[in-house]
Amino acid sequence: EIVLTQSPGTLSLSPGERATLSCRASQSVSSSYLAWYQQKPGQAPRLLIYGASSRATGIPDRFSGSGSGTDLTLTISRLEPEDFAVYYCQQYGSSPLTFGGGTKVEIK
Amino acid sequence: QVQLQESGPGLVKPSETLSLTCTVSGGSISNSYWSWIRQPPGKGLEWIGYIYYSGSTNYNPSLKSRVTISEDTSKNQFSLKLRSVTAADTAVYYCARSGDYNDYLDYWGQGTLVTVSS
Known about the structure:
The structure holds 2 protein chains of 2 kinds. Chain A has strands spanning 4-7, 10-13, 19-29, 34-39, 46-50, 54-55, 63-76, 86-91, 98-99, 103-107. Chain A is mainly beta. In chain A, strands 2, 4, 5, 6, 8, 9 and 10 form a 7-stranded mixed beta sheet that branches. Chain A has a 3-stranded antiparallel beta sheet with strand order 1-3-7, with no helix packed on it. In chain A, a hairpin with a 3-residue loop joins strand 5 and strand 6 (54-55). The mean pLDDT of chain A is 96. Chain B starts with a strand and ends with a strand. The mean pLDDT of chain B is 96. The interface between A and B is medium-sized, with 25 and 21 residues.
């Protein structure tokens, strides 16, 4: 099983700032089969990024994914008020599908 | 636009079986993979397993001995059964869709909270 470790656990930033979220895998994620999700309180996760760097339908271009192998990154170029939420990475290169523990982006 | 809706009891007694159903609208279950994921209160996400319309399944080894996922194509639904539940199975349960086996999850239900308690 591939274990995903997300850091930091919490990121305190102000609107307009840049957010950089890390997802480290215990072994290489094949073919960059990694996704990122956003979850707000009381809501289901929403797909943001798949294939490590492809934005899902309707996702603003301030969200970008990068990296490969064992080190993946989600970047939010300029935080909007609606971006404060918890973000999860997920690998789907091997079974079982696994998620990281999440990074909370909170308002500073 | 595919929509998913979970339904089932919100309270289950310890040692009993948790049963949930996911109803799919806006698309047929006969051309995608359908997963269950759970999230204990205040914690992260855990993939439980998926079913393909052919009936083939894939389960998380951590739950495999207690889980069955099945489908009813006539009702465009799929279901989860989790046997011998304990308090550790208390969670919000989500159903979700993926386009292929071992794939990202692009459509999610809103989730339903199931509490295991006597």
